[in-house]
Amino acid sequence: MIIVAVILRCVIKNIWNGERHIMFVGDEIAGAYQKTYKENNNSKIPNQKDLEYEDYVPKKEELTIAKNTKKVLEQAGYKNYIYRADFIDDDKGNIMLLEFEMVNPELDLDKIEDISKNVKSFIDETLLEQDNEIEL
58 with 73: CB under 8 angstroms? Predict the structure, then answer.
């Protein structure tokens, strides 16, 4: 069997105002940061090399959206132990879920201090204690 996955993602102009990333391990926040682009350079697509990162305190609404998205996916049969939710604001300042990453959230581990310790602790204390009954 061959499985093909395609992701189409339009570039939303508000991306230039920054993205907020929230990492979760289980139901706990493992870390959060805001990613902003240093320069626009009249480019339509942000350059991933021109980034600045800073710690971020998530808004209550962002946490609600992230946890509700996780619940919906779990109801559909997808277990989520480690995931990341990314947000931006629209033109009116409303929070938008930009991305919900379950596949490779670890790609940002180097951006958040101590998150690798949180992930290891969660795996050691939670996942490894469950008698190998976890379906990934």
Answer: no
What is the CB neighbour count within 10 angstroms for residue 90? 10
Alpha carbons 50 and 121: distance in angstroms, whole number = 33
Which of the four pLDDT bands, split at 50, 70 and 90, describes residue 13?
confident
Closest CA to 36 of 118, 111, 92: 111
Is the whole model's pTM more than 0.70, yes or no? no
Q: What is the 3-state secondary structure (H, E, C) of the chain?
A: CCCCCCCCCCCCHHHHHCEEEEEEECCEEEEEEEEEECCCCCCCCCCCCCEEEEECCCCHHHHHHHHHHHHHHHHCCCCCCEEEEEEEECCCCCEEEEEEECCCHHHHHHHCCCHHHHHHHHHHHHHCCCCCCCCC
